Amino acid sequence: MDDPTVLVTGATGFIGRRLVPALVERGLEVRAMTRRPEEYDGPATAVGGDVADPASLASALAGVDVAVYLVHALDQPDFEERDAAAARSFAAAAADAGVRQIVYLGGLGADDQDLSPHLRSRREVEGLLASTGVPVTVLRAAIVVGHGGISWELTRQLVKNLPAMIVPRWTSTRTQPIALDDVVRYLAGVIGVERAYGEVYEVGGPEVMTYIDMLREASHAAGTRPVPIIRVPVLTPRLSSYWLALVTDVDVTTGRNLIDSMGTEVVVSDHRIREIVPGEPLPYEEAVRRALAERLADGQDI
């Protein structure tokens, strides 16, 4: 597809506010969808729209070729119902508008696994977005490492705030974190690519790590002293979420929903994305360094 018109939902969010400038730099016509367009000060054309308000979507999607869907409600107790309803509305509006491709950032995890509510919801949204016939390209990722990302913030704040950590068994689960820059690169790379229509791609960094590995490497990259880590056999997701709320600024609901997913191994098993978007992903340590550098540039301490 030559020079598609692209709508980015969640344009002011963690991923969206990095993706929009990358697409504008490519010379694409980009619409940044936000609930408060009058407050938007980034590149691209701001358009009003709210996935929870189906009536607002028609005008936002009019004339759009590709829609990037970066919306979820993880901080709400009923996030599964909210996300499902939003995906249904968006899929219907996209079909009515003649959108030719939806690009969605979902979550890693094998289809035959016993997935957490968070990951189950991501899978459900994949299907619902495709339910009206618009081809969907899905990128499935684990933890995205970048300034402002909630999962990365958990890591950074734990390393910063605790003299020692008593951690539950789920911190030994294997995962494959990915740099924010690589997520943006992959999202931008599949937009308008017809061979990617209807495909699901797994994306990750070069290392398979445990959450404990991530904490230790983040501590090293930040230049802080190593944080002693003590494993305990039992610490339920509910207790873990309260623990996180005590030592970080992540709310209990979000923390619980994230922790529920951390017991599931999420490792890339399919590398076909390299055929569409060539290039080596950044190592975890470099992703951490970039996240910390951006935080400092934003006027915040490490």
Describe the structure.
There is one protein chain. With about 300 residues, this protein is α/β, with parallel strands linked by helices. The protein has a domain at about 5-145 and about 175-205 and about 265-280: NAD(P)-binding Rossmann-like Domain (Rossmann fold), CATH 3.40.50. The protein has eleven helices and 13 strands. The strands form four sheets. Strands 3-2-1-4-5-6-11 form a seven-stranded parallel beta sheet, with helices on both faces. Strands 7-10 form a two-stranded parallel sheet. It has a two-stranded parallel ribbon with strand order 8-13. α4 links the parallel β5 and β6 (about 135-140). α5 (about 150-160) packs across α7. It is globular. The model has no long low-confidence stretch (mean pLDDT about 85).
What are the SSEs and their pairings?
Elements (H helix, E strand, L loop, with lengths): L4 E4 L7 H10 L3 E6 L10 E4 L8 H5 L4 E4 L9 H19 L3 E7 L9 H13 L6 E6 L2 E2 L4 H12 L3 E3 L6 E2 L2 E2 H11 L9 E3 L6 E2 H12 L6 E3 L5 H11 L4 H11 L10 H4 L7 H14 L5
Parallel strand pairs: 1-2, 1-4, 2-3, 4-5, 5-6, 6-11, 7-10, 8-13
Antiparallel strand pairs: 9-12
Helix pairs in contact: 1-6, 3-4, 5-7, 7-11, 8-9
For this structure, what is the CATH homologous superfamily of the domain at 5-145 and 177-204 and 267-281? Answer: NAD(P)-binding Rossmann-like Domain
Terminal Cα separation, in Å? 42 Å
Tell me how many strands there are.
13
In the sheet with the most strands, the strands line up as 3-2-1-4-5-6-11
| Chain-averaged pLDDT | 86
- Give the % helix: 40-55%
CATH architecture of the domain at 5-145 and 177-204 and 267-281: 3-Layer(aba) Sandwich
CATH topology of the domain at 5-145 and 177-204 and 267-281: Rossmann fold
What letter string, H or E per element, gives the SSE order?
EHEEHEHEHEEHEEEHEEHEHHHH
Low-confidence stretches: none
Rg: 19 Å
CATH class of the domain at 5-145 and 177-204 and 267-281: Alpha Beta
How big a fraction of the residues is strand?
A: 15-25%
Number of helices, where a helix is a run of at least 4 consecutive DSSP H or I residues: 11
Determine the oligomeric state from the structure. Answer: single chain
Shape: globular
Q: How does the helix and strand content classify structurally? A: alpha/beta
The largest sheet is: 7 strands, parallel
